[in-house]
Each structure stands twice: as C-alpha cells, then as structure tokens.
Specification:
The protein has a single domain, classed as NADH Oxidase, CATH 3.40.109.10. The chain is 39% helix and 16% strand. The protein is built from six helices and four strands. Bound molecules: flavin mononucleotide.
C-alpha cells in the first residue's frame, strides 16, 4: 500500500498524550500542511492560532470547561493546541477549515504525532464569557471557530473503528 493511503487508514484520534514537548519544527510542519488544504475559490479562509504554553492551554481548557458547564473537562493533556477559525462572513469557512484540520491530523500522524479534533468551542465559543476570553487571547472579531486540534505524542493506540455498511453507493 502506498504511504499516503497507509497514513489515512492508520490515523486514529488520540485522547491521551505523553508529557513530552513537541519540537517546534514539527508543529510548524503540521500547521503548514493545514495551510495547504484546498479551499473554496482558493480563498484560504482558514486562520490558525497555535498555543504551546502549558499554562495558556490549561487556562483555555478551564474557560471551555466552564462554558460547557463541565468542570472536569480536559483537552487530554495536549502539548499544543491549534485553533482553526474563519470569519463568520466566509461562505465556505467551515468547509475550508475542516479540510485544514484533516490535513493537519494526517500530517501529524505521518510525523509520529497523535491528534484529536476538539469541537467544544463550536458549542460554547459564542457564550459571552468564552467569547471575551477568545478576544483577550487574540482571536479576531467576527470569527467562527471551526475546530481545535490537540497535538502531542500519543500515550495510547487509539481505537480502530470498522467502517459501517452501506456508506458507499455506486450509481449508474
Ligand atoms: C467534526 C468533528 C468533531 C469532533 N469533536 C471531537 C471532540 O470534541 N472531542 C473528541 O474527543 N473527539 C472529537 N472528534 C473525533 C471523533 O470522535 C473521531 O474522529 C471519531 O470517533 C472516529 O475516530 P477516529 O478519528 O480515531 O477514526 C471529532 C471529530 C470530528 C470530525
């Protein structure tokens, strides 16, 4: 099997990370792969906000936990968090950002890193106290958070999910 397909078929969401710093060049390679995602009309609507400071990640985790009314909420001990956002005005912003997230998940896997899409800002990112915090840490006004990516060295294998029946229909 070629390397690209093998990488697609063996990627898993990782929800437990080692206490091991990710080299900066690997993080920038992952983000670069995100920027190379396709985008509607090549508008490149995705914007990437990279957090590596442990205290900053924990502080955001706390804000999101409060926003979700789940005090035990965690980002799985991630060593880096990449927030992907677009403008609320971008017609294809969510689609573009989703392609970027998938590119980054596959890039991470190919580089020996685990990752997991974290979606909670979709649900609580517009709550006033959460939105105010996102403003404070530097996300632009008028943003829509497409998703966050937890990134780190995997401390678990992840779960293999068999594909469901009937996903594909070939039409005449
Ligand atoms: C749109 C989207 C949102 C997701 N949100 C979360 C999330 O908030 N937390 C989480 O642990 N996993 C999240 N995931 C990961 C999925 O749970 C995971 O992809 C799915 O269980 C299949 O497992 P796999 O990625 O290992 O193939 C999300 C994935 C997608 C595509």
């Amino acid at each position: 099997m070629n390397e690209v397909l093998n990488n697609i078929y063996t990627r898993r969401s990782i929800r437990k990370f080692k206490d091991q710093t990710i080299p900066a060049d690997l993080i920038s390679e992952v983000v670069k792969a995100g920027t190379y995602a396709p985008s509607g009309k090549n508008m490149q609507t995705f914007r990437f906000f990279v957090m590596q400071n442990a205290d900053s990640i924990l502080a955001l985790q706390d804000v999101v936990g409060k926003g979700m009314e789940n005090p035990s909420y965690t980002f799985y001990g991630t060593k880096a968090l990449i927030i992907v956002a677009c403008s609320k005005e971008d017609v294809n912003g969510v689609e573009d950002g989703s392609c970027a997230l998938e590119n980054m998940m596959l890039a991470a896997h190919s580089l020996g890193l685990g990752s997991c899409w974290i979606n909670q800002l979709k649900y609580c990112g517009d709550k006033p106290e959460v939105a105010a915090y996102l403003d404070k840490i530097g996300l632009p006004e008028g943003r829509r958070v497409v998703g966050m990516l937890a990134l780190g060295y995997a401390d678990e294998d992840g779960t293999s999910h068999p594909r469901q029946e009937g996903l594909v229909t070939y039409l005449d």
